[in-house]
Amino acid sequence: MKPKRSWESPAAKTTDPKAHVTWFGPDDSEQRFKFAVSKEEGDKISLVPGEQKFKKGLKARRWAEENGGESTLYKVVKVGPTRIDLEKVQPKAE
Q: How far apart are CA 63 and CA 3, in angstroms?
């Protein structure tokens, strides 16, 4: 059996220091959950699914740090068994 790459494990369980992780949480909350990033290009990001659920069309906040800092708003574009795709929400021009 082929061993999994570090990013294929849920982030909460990975101990690989090279694994790229980020924190996401509900749009209306400061609660954060750690996720492994499988791919990131521009305003799009793909996460390895964890124990937390995402639903297509809902929004989530992303933090670069486990505590503190500013968040960025993302929208869930696709949810599958092996990945969660999100896209950055652009601020509305005033």
A: 30
Strands, E assignment, 42-89: 44-47, 59-63, 71-79, 84-88
Report the distance separating Cα 68 and Cα 70, nearest Å: 7
65 C-beta neighbours (distance < 10 Å), count:
11
Write the pLDDT tens digit of every residue in 50-60.
888 899 999 99
The whole-angstrom distance between residue 61's C-alpha and the CA centroid of its chain comes to 9
Instruction: Kindly give the pairing relationship between strand 33-41 and strand 84-88.
Output: unpaired
Going by C-beta distance under 8 Å and a sequence separation of 6 or more, which residues neighbour residue 40? 20, 46
Report field, pTM of the whole predicted structure over 0.90: no
